[in-house]
Design goal:
- This protein is an alpha/beta fold.
- The chain is built from 12 helices and 8 strands.
- The protein has an 8-stranded mixed sheet, with helices on both faces.
- Helix 1 packs parallel to helix 5, helix 2 packs across helix 11 and helix 7 runs parallel beside helix 8.
- The two termini are about 15 Å apart.
């Protein structure tokens, strides 16, 4: 195990000058707010800007990204931990020229890793970082003790809410919990299913004000998506709404959000700190 760790350390040091992917976790306080649909179409919008994107379905055993695109991958992250296959072997080609690792079915303990499995995942994931511009993690609804450890490892968080009071409160609670453990992770807000532009702006502003007032937490308003009938139609067709109808209001909105994110055009000052995903994983999972 020591030799394994030493070899990994040397490889990581040798790759310090190589451009690494930015890791982004997309989460919500509760289910049913359109988080997976956002993550899928956001990934495609980034890809359309010439970026290499890997979408990682982290709702292990209950993943639905493959359902949204109408394709079934023969392998999932479960296969990586239960067999000797490599991470690169379970990556499937997705719509819009993105890459996908599915969550699979049949619950498994992703975060209950012994050191041998952790070292293997750590090593193989480090190889993926140099192959992509963005790696997005579509997290399961809510926050568990295990998923919390993972959330603390990523470079940035995107939190999805809707104008519903329960959704706003759940998003606030999730960010409060994360902020109580690590105050340095940049957080972005997206409001989904808004009926008017004013509705979206007021929802995000209300949440931002509460975060500042009670937590001293500054967040970035990344944008909002309209309640568009194109979305349920695309879900029925099992096709991302951005590809189903690129002229729809919701498609134009997701393209705008991806553009603002990629260009750091947030309309406000916000310093983004690039962190080290693998080093943080080791600290949060094993206290080293």
């Amino acid at each position: 195990m020591k030799d394994q760790a030493e070899n990994l350390r040397k490889r990581l040091e040798a790759r310090q000058n190589i451009s690494m992917a930015k890791t982004i976790a997309v989460l919500s306080g509760k289910g049913g707010v359109g988080k997976s649909n956002f993550t899928l179409n956001f990934s495609i919008a980034l890809s359309q800007r010439g970026k290499k994107v890997l979408l990682f379905d982290m709702d292990i055993g209950m993943g639905n990204i493959d359902i949204l695109i109408g394709e079934h991958s023969p392998y999932s992250i479960i296969d990586f931990f239960e067999t000797d296959c490599h991470l690169k072997d379970i990556i499937m080609s997705g719509p819009g020229n993105i890459s996908i690792i599915t969550g699979g079915t049949g619950v498994t303990d992703l975060f209950s890793l012994n050191e041998e499995k952790y070292a293997r995942f750590n090593e193989e994931f480090s190889l993926l970082l140099a192959n992509y511009d963005y790696i997005l993690f579509d997290m399961g609804a809510g926050i568990t003790m295990d998923s919390m450890k993972f959330l603390l490892c990523v470079d940035e968080l995107i939190v999805i809410t809707t104008p519903e009071p329960t959704s706003i409160m759940d998003a606030y609670s999730a960010m409060k919990y994360i902020h109580s453990v690590n105050k340095d992770i940049p957080m972005f807000l997206v409001c989904n299913r808004v009926f008017t532009r004013k509705d979206g702006k007021e929802t995000i502003k209300r949440l931002q004000n509460a975060l500042v007032k009670f937590l001293g937490l500054e967040t970035v308003a990344l944008g909002y998506l309209p309640d568009d009938r194109t979305v349920p139609q695309s879900v029925t067709k099992q096709m991302p709404f951005l590809l189903c109808d690129s002229g729809a209001d919701v498609s134009k909105a997701i393209v705008d959000i991806a553009s603002r994110y990629a260009n750091h055009s947030f309309g406000e000052e916000f310093t983004l700190h690039k962190s080290h995903f693998l080093q943080k994983m080791k600290r949060y999972f094993f206290g080293k």
